[in-house]
Amino acid sequence: MPGKNLSRDEAQQRASILTVDSYQVRLDVTSAPDPAAATFRSTTTIAFRCAEPGAATFLDLLAPAVRAVTLNGRSLDPATAYDGARVHVDGLAAENTLTVEADCAYSRTGEGLHRFTDPADGETYLYTHYEPADARRVFATFEQPDLKAPFDFTVTAPAAWDVRSNAPHRTVTEDGAARTWEFEPTRPISTYLTAVVAGPYHVVRDHYSRALADGTVLDIPLAALCRRSLAPYFDADEILGVTKLGLDFFHEKFDYPYPFGKYDQAFVPEYNIGAMENPGCVTFREEFVFRSKVTDAAYEARANVVLHEMAHMWFGDLVTMRWWDDLWLKESFADFMGSYGLVGAGTRYRAAWVTFANQRKAWAYRQDQFPTTHPITADIRDLEDAKLNFDGITYAKGASVLKQLVAYAGADAFFEGARRYFQRHAFGNTELADLLDILEETSGRDLKSWAAAWLQTAGVNTLTPQLTVDAEGRITELAVLQDGDVQRPHRIAVGLYDRDADGALVRTERFELDVTGARTVVTGAAGHARPALVLLNDDDLTYCKIRFDEESLETLRTGLGDIKDDLARALAWSAVWNLTRDALMPARDYVALVLRFAGQEANIGVLQSLHAQAKGAVDLYADPAWRGEGGRLLADSALRELRSAAPGSDHQLAWARFLAQTANGSEHLGLVRGLLAGTARIDGLEVDQELRWALWLTLAAAGQAGEEELAGEFAADNTASGRRQYTQCLAARPTPEAKAAAWSAVIDSEELPNALVEANIAGFGVPAHRDLTALYAAPYFKLLERVWAERTIEIAMRIVGGFFPQAQVDEATLAEADAWLSGHPDAAPALRRLVLERRDDLARALRAQACDRG
Ligand SMILES: [Zn+2]
């Protein structure tokens, strides 16, 4: 479609001549409950100035039909003005009024105005999601972040509905079966941040107030929303509790009163991402409303997201990046603030930095070692680039580097910088230099070279200890070696660990230093007795991979689980996983560590990531000849730990879920069936609905769940979640017919909603079914360009990433991927990026398997 992929150059050109004064957007969604109605009426009136009268420009709009275009009272013919992606207007005056009337489409992909009908009660729900550029699916826009304006929304909806937008509503007028909601104008915001949530949502209201320094009182009405059928499970008090702690904390740290009036948090169905920071109207994936028991790691993750989105009200919404190159200016900060806030705001999630070190950083390390990695400040040529950059670099590496900046420049300088940044750039747009200038003022340090090393180059450094010891066993020198194409200044701590009287590994010495260049001596270490363990990057101040000296590695093999401190232990787990991924530790050795020590892992989030990694190690990184034995060992340990875990504990649930993921022999599968039938019991383990589906998935993948049984479970749980999991179970059956049906459901129809696309892909790709799915490698590569051209980018990304033959860890599949890449040099860069990353995963798995074979 012409002009769908807006380029940075076009956006710059448009911003150079236009200033937008206001948008008025009228939407009529009264047709939404009628499944036969595909579209809704959208009328947009934009007031804007043009610095070059007589010039031409365009609006972005993705709509099935444009009914009318009027510029300054002059009607334009939609047939010529609208090309399917843009509305072209010329002969601009110095001051312009432009009205576009269109029929826009209800979305099933989570992009634009998504429509969902609840199978539980037939109710229809709508919400919008736009980032980076889908407001144009709902109204005519100048779709770029730096053309901010106040928005005035009016929404006509079924009378029984609640309707929310960024601003509070001004009036509601009833007209028969419909009600019209007029909202207050917003403050100046970017198009991608506007929002509408509409439907018979369940609403929990609350209130936050705070005395400000100037003697006034800031009042913020709070609301938390979810679908009615989820209301029995909605723990809004917990969510609103974290919300209030966060509002206290960010007001103290940022010293800029929350600028968007009220604060709604809506948990919405079939959401593509975790959450979105629409000012005053945040949307979250509704899987954060827990229908069944989850571990505390899930509550922590949700609270982290609540604070992440709240931080965006300042970083991103009040001050916004000029273009997507500087997406990190909001995402890295919000990601950092999520963990920082969990600890600093006084929530009960005290282990947030352990989670960050162990899980969030794993995402960054993985992404940063792809051939497609990029600097934190990226080069984003167009919207397809932008869409792919919501990645482990922009979020997790960026947040890690901010954590390092706080260690390097100090927390006071960092937050004073934030305060000046908001004061100086409120309601404006910024670039890297705007932030650096301020941080240099507040820190008194030259941050240009720091930024060049950390923000403007790609890749992760590896730090390795180099230890020399004298005849008495005393350290004569401890040095830190830094590898990598780019060497960076790292503020790090180095910990020396030894056994205490109880046998626990505890820190006996800590040195803090700046590592610069290829080799840095740790001052103060000489003269100490050689410790059992040298831990670089102790306290996780910097962003790097760490290695160990031989003796320390031996200590980990025999005593990793004995490290007393949760963060230090999490760092050790992370390091041995990196060794495994880098083909420096055989997969079976990593699995042996998990088998030996996971049972004593206290941190529930770390335990759950060990489960996922151990399963991945067996499926992808182990010698195929050992895979069967590795799988049995995991399942045996899951069963053993499940039986010995404290009844009703999070650990018990985590091990039950791990058993569901690994069960293979008749003993394990028999227990799974028994738990489902109620003939087997584990004391304290409640086999609730979500766990039931996890167990059914095990049986389905093992070929031991019939279609009727699965349909029976779905009939008993005819909900959105039930439908997703039923779909996944059907696709997970080990038959050619099941795989063909899942493939076809995704590829041959554009009607399938995003949630079921994902469920089919997940079920299709059971690693153990690699013989069945091998047949799809060739069709996959043939389909790529068509999928990219025909599907929305969200769905195309899922198909390209999800159907890649990643379980086919062999040279032939690698060659197929290479052949496609070399044969399609001109394919869309974003498509090539996705394939390159999956190809790199495959090559990594081959190296790891070679290492495991020995
Ligand atoms: Zn974010």
Automatic annotation (TrEMBL):
It comes from the Bacteria. Gene3D superfamilies: Neutral Protease Domain 2, tricorn interacting facor f3 domain. GO terms for molecular function: alanyl aminopeptidase activity. It is an enzyme of class 3 (hydrolase). Keywords: Aminopeptidase, Hydrolase, Metal-binding, Metalloprotease, Protease, Zinc. CDD domains: M1_APN. It catalyses: Release of an N-terminal amino acid, Xaa-|-Yaa- from a peptide, amide or arylamide. Xaa is preferably Ala, but may be most amino acids including Pro (slow action). When a terminal hydrophobic residue is followed by a prolyl residue, the two may be released as an intact Xaa-Pro dipeptide. InterPro entries: Aminopeptidase_N-like_N (IPR045357), Aminopeptidase_N-like_N_sf (IPR042097), ERAP1-like_C_dom (IPR024571), Pept_M1_aminopeptidase (IPR012778), Peptidase_M1 (IPR001930), Peptidase_M1_aminopeptidases (IPR050344), Peptidase_M1_dom (IPR014782), Peptidase_M4/M1_CTD_sf (IPR027268). The keyword Nucleotide-binding does not apply. Residues 23-193 form the Aminopeptidase N-like N-terminal domain. Its cofactor is Zn(2+). This is Aminopeptidase N. It comes from Kitasatospora misakiensis.
